[in-house]
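re: ur question from earlier - yeah i can do the single chain one, its not a big deal. heres the input i used so u can compare w yours
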Amino acid sequence: MPARNKSLVLITFITLLLSTSAAEATVNLNWTIFTKESLSGQAISDASVYFRFIDKRTQKITDKTCATDKNGQCTFETLAAGGMIRSPNFDIQYKAEKSGYSKRFTYKSEDLKTENPKVYITMNPLRKFETPVFVDASSNSIVGAKVSFSTRYNDRIESERVTCTTTQDGKCTLAFDGELFTGFVSAPGYYAESVTMASPPEIISLKKIITDLDLSRMESEVAVECTGKESCERAFSLAQIYLLKVSSQKLQIATDTIVETYNPSLPNTIGGRVYKEPIKGDKWRIAIQSYCSEPIEKKKEDVEAIVDRDRDARACAERRVKIYQDFKRSVHN
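and the output i got, formated as tokens:
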């Protein structure tokens, strides 16, 4: 090839390279973010906007944050080393947050192929639900009760629950996205209760937990003392009859001093024993003990586990209280 032609090819190549480099030069992008509320269309001030700009050609990641002004706007700048924004060379991620608004939002972008791109973000205000008033047996408001609900969004149950804690008036307000689904309330010293969204009552009374110490104290208080062989044998026979009447289980032990059932294994079943012990001389003490089946262990992520556990525990404790309350009268008869 003649030298002149070689020079022409070289000049043409250099010119093309420079033109390409100029087209791909670093560009300063001036972003404007606009936020508004979905229901009213009003601008949202003091919203926190998180922005990530990924330039796939240079593998550079730029993170930006800004807070919207009274007009619901904020601005920032980014550098695009690969030139103007052209998919798939760039990846853009947005997030907008403000207390009282859902983390879900919609957005649309405009002018992405210019030096002044715009993003319009629409945010959804959270819905609110004022809980019933939670009181104790004396109708006193319970402070510090935790109300927890699962939520449903577009027929999908969300993993994260919404909660609130009752104040001096015994109630609180839940802020949520979508729909409230299933809920319960729990408070220290009280059994957990379900809370339903279907015509919820204005007032819900929580029951105090009946502790093992309470039950042990009752066992001791209802024990019967007797004197003489004939009187004690009669009282012990009546105690055995009473045990068989209130227990769900068959007898496994029966002697002159103790009668005991098999341990309960099924839910809502109860067992127990009556025993006779000498006090002094010909005086004897006849007592009763009762017990329920062990609660079924449930996975921690089972949202109904707390209510189920407390419902079973309460049912058991209340049955045992009833057994102790009626024991002395039954044996004296």
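The two ends are 129 Å apart (CA to CA). not sure if urs matches, ping me
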